Every structure is written in C-alpha cells, then in structure tokens.
Amino acid sequence: MIGLPSLQAMDRAQGARIWMASEATDMRCGFDRLAERVRAVIGENPQSGHLFVFRSRRGDRLKILVWDRDGFVLWYKRLEVGVFKIPRVEQGSRSVELRASELAMILDGIDVSKLKRVPRYQARCEEQKRNTVQEKIETTHKIAAV
C-alpha cells in the first residue's frame, strides 16, 4: 500500500507554530521592525523558531519572518495579479495561529476564508482512557460500599 501524505500529517509534522498578524503591516519593515511587531502585536518571542506571517494593506504581499539558529530569515512574496486570501479573524484579535496546511493553501492561492472544517472522529488519548477507567473503578467501589 502506498502511504499518501495527509493535511493532518503535514500539520503534525510541523514542529514550529505559525502565527499571522491580523492587521496589515508596512512592507517596508525589515528584520528588526518585524521582530518588534512579533513582540508587540503577536506577543511571541521572535527568536523562538516559529514562523510569523505579515500581509500588506492591499493583500498582494506576504512576509514570513523566522529565526534560524544564528539569525533571522525573511521570505517575501509579491503577487503580480490578485491577493492572498487569508482566514477570517475574530473581532479584536491581533493574530491568528495557522496550520502548515493552511499556510500552504494561502500561498497556493486557495481562499481559506471560505473553507469549513467538518467534525471528524478523534480517538481519545491514552490518558483520557485511563481517567475514564479510573472513574468507572471508583464508581464501582462506591456502589459496592453502599
């Protein structure tokens, strides 16, 4: 059987978190000003190794800032036609966390604001199973004591 990658596997494989500032950013900002915006707007440490995404006012440009061992890396993309379609952000929120799959879709031109994730079954983790078993044992002991 051929193992095909899934979006969920891609999201779990991503060690670094991805944060996008919800407000438009001046694209003249360089390393230091973007790092300051990470602290002020997103509230994270810019040297954490996480990816920080900023978009232009017109929505046709994106910058991604990331710390790489001994310095910042800045990735910049400008679209010749169209705009990046970003996810909806809750009112008053200054940033939103993205999954790796969502960032890939944004960069590929998919309108993630119109996507809707449907509920999926998720197996309970072992700790939840143990807690449930422990609760059943305690309930059985209480009933037996009565």
The major beta sheet can be summarized as:
5 strands, mixed
What overall form do the CA principal axes indicate? elongated
Terminal CA distance reads: 55 Å
Q: What is the strand content?
A: 15-25%
Order of helices and strands: HEHEEEEHH
Overall average pLDDT: 83
Could you walk me through the main structural features you see in this protein, from its secondary elements to its overall organization?
By secondary structure, the protein is α+β, with helices and mostly antiparallel strands. The chain has one domain (7-114). Helices cover 33% and strands 20% of the residues. It has 4 helices and 5 strands; from the N terminus they run αβαββββαα. The protein has helices at 7-13, 31-42, 100-108, 126-145, and strands at 18-21, 51-55, 61-68, 71-78, 95-98. It has a 5-stranded mixed beta sheet with strand order 4-3-2-1-5. Strand 3 and strand 4 form a beta hairpin. The mean pLDDT is 83.
